[in-house]
Amino acid sequence: MHTGSASGIIPTGNLADMEAAMNVAAILAQKGRDVITIPPHTTLAEATHVLAEHRIGAVVVAGRDADVVGVFSERDLVRAVARDGAGVLDQPVSSVMTRALITSRSTTHIDTLMELMTEKRVRHIIIMDEGRMSGFVSIGDVVKRKIASAEAEAGALKAYIETA
């Protein structure tokens, strides 16, 4: 059985349903699997407009055949401008993007994903399933799911106490 909440759909009932709601697939089911991508030759100025237009903090950089080649984030932009000044805005994102890709799978438990993000000091993770990108998850997405889960658990405990 599922009930709606302000934070999304949270299962109530058996433990298997609760665990399934705590993996990356549950986040992607709620937010969608569409990923904003840009080509490596996009200038930093153009990439900044993409971030602002979509109200996102990072974008996947995809080469030919949609192969993921990097991630461009607000952090990359700030570091580049701090190091080289405003003139860097005419350079391609490939010159400053993060190339060391941190990936996970849709079956990954949210707690494991949070640990990975903390350990690697990243705010965005590319989700790969069967060798293809299947989503892009931010720390905000993960926190939102954790809060929804805690709210559902608190509601279930309250209901249990009231009926006991």
Which structural class is indicated by helix and strand composition?
A: alpha/beta
- Based on DSSP secondary structure assignment, what is the total number of beta strands? 8
From the spread of the alpha carbons, the general shape counts as elongated
Low-confidence stretches: 1-12
Roughly what is the average pLDDT, rounded to an integer? 86
The biggest beta sheet reads: 3 strands, mixed
User: C-alpha Rg, in Å?
Assistant: 19 Å
User: What is the string of helix and strand elements?
Assistant: EEHHEHEEHEHEEH
Fraction in beta strands: 15-25%
Provide the spatial order of strands within the biggest beta sheet.
3-4-5
**End-to-end Cα distance:** 21 Å
**What's the helix count?**
6
How helical, in percent, are the residues? 40-55%
Task: Tell me what the structure shows.
The chain is an alpha/beta fold and 164 residues long. The N terminus is likely disordered. Strand 6, helix 5 and strand 7 form a beta-alpha-beta unit. Helix 5 runs antiparallel to helix 6. The chain has 6 helices and 8 strands, in the order E-E-H-H-E-H-E-E-H-E-H-E-E-H. The two termini are 21 Å apart. It is elongated and about 65 Å long. It has a 3-stranded mixed sheet. A 3-stranded mixed sheet has the order 6-7-8. 44% of the residues lie in helices and 22% in strands.
